[in-house]
Amino acid sequence: MTVLKPAHAYLLDCAIDKMNTQTLRFVHALQPSVPENVQPAEMVEGTTTEEVLRVLIHRHETFQEGPYASPDNKLVIRCLLDALQFQSEIIARHASQ
Q: Could you tell me which of 69, 25, 65 has the C-alpha nearest to residue 47?
């Protein structure tokens, strides 16, 4: 993993072909501002932490349904679900302020 822009963009190494990479980009404002005042034109498109957590949860749940089922995957799922819940609570709290 290479940090392209801290907290916003990352270059991820591919597992098989080490010469290839994928970019993970998170949505963010071009300039620091109060979130509710940011207009779409001032935003950089990307995903959210919550969406990445949902992908990881789905991936591990799928493992649990097949030959890779294990107590370790069950624990990872529980931790990811907790992280998603905490992240969602933070967003809800900030939205209500």
A: 25
The reply to whether 64 and 80 lie within a common domain is yes
Q: Looking at the structure, do residues 55 and 97 belong to the same domain, yes or no?
A: yes
Helix or strand holding residue 43 (H, E): strand 43-44
Q: Indicate if 3 and 32 belong to the same structural domain.
A: yes
Instruction: Tell me the CA distances in angstroms from 11 to 5, 25, 70, one per residue in order.
Output: 10, 9, 30
> pLDDT tens digits, the chain, 97 residues: what are they?
999 999 999 999 999 998 999 999 999 877 665 556 656 667 788 999 999 999 999 999 999 999 999 999 999 999 999 999 999 999 888 878 7
Q: Identify the domain containing residue 91 by its residue range.
A: 49-97
DSSP SS3 for 11 = strand
